[in-house]
Amino acid sequence: MVIDILYRRILQLFSVMLVVGVLSFLIMHSLPGDMAYRIAAGRYGQDNVSMLAAQQVAIELNLDAGLVESLMYWFNDLIRFNFGTSLVSGQNVSDMLYHQVGHSLVLAISAVLIALLISIPFGLLSVKYPRILNPFISLISVLTKSMPVFVIGIVLIAIFAIELNLAPVAGYGSWQYLLLPAFTLGISLAAVTNRVIYVNALDVSQSAFYQFSRFKGLTVKQTLLRHGVKNISAPVVTYLGIQLVIVIEGIVMIESLFSWPGIGHGLAHAIFARDVPVIQGCALMMGFLFVAVNTITDLICYKLDPRGLE
Fold it and tell me: Which domain of life is it from (predicted)?
């Protein structure tokens, strides 16, 4: 079964990367405006760019080549795992992606860990105290999830960076720079995750097998560890897998807000500068992460409950 999962995901990986790569190539080449002028503006600045500089950039980068010819060049480089060089900075795109993906993964994993630290106790406490805590936690979850994630980030910046001076506003350096972006994503993710844990924990606690284990004489802790954790975890892992994909897609806004040097921040700059190789590299890497996260989620769910994928 594991081999079947990996086989399907590898086929999906090639399909996703092919479709994402071709679509991003066609979209970027069909955008209105002078690509050479935008690239020259990215290199020399808006105040120093001229038509002569744009013409020199067009000749240097062979931008006057036809669409099919450019697409064939791109395919030829992709087969050799060569993402090319940035049209603006001249840096190797593979090196840029290597650093950006590392920073994005650190941010995403930190956000998921924070979300679990918040949502697990909140979800279980809602089951244990359904009349006292559940309505309050449910209201907080709805209010938090109804806010755009960048609003949560601005609120955290105002409180913890400006008023209390406990964390830097933005940038990258020591671990303190990770706090606000990770908590912004983590809080947004925990708003719904704690509700998923609550619903599944309530279903499991009211199930016949769970009640029977209590009749056998097991304590609450023993029953939870032996029969509760595994049955609650499978749907929660599935939900987190879906949410992590959304985090990867939505990380552009958070990385731009906090100037975090991840793949989303790099993609936003590349789009403004019309840096096609960097845009295509970022899009392909996001497609790869999408398939990788789904594969890991399927394998964990299969390990927790093999019946779910049979």
Answer: Bacteria
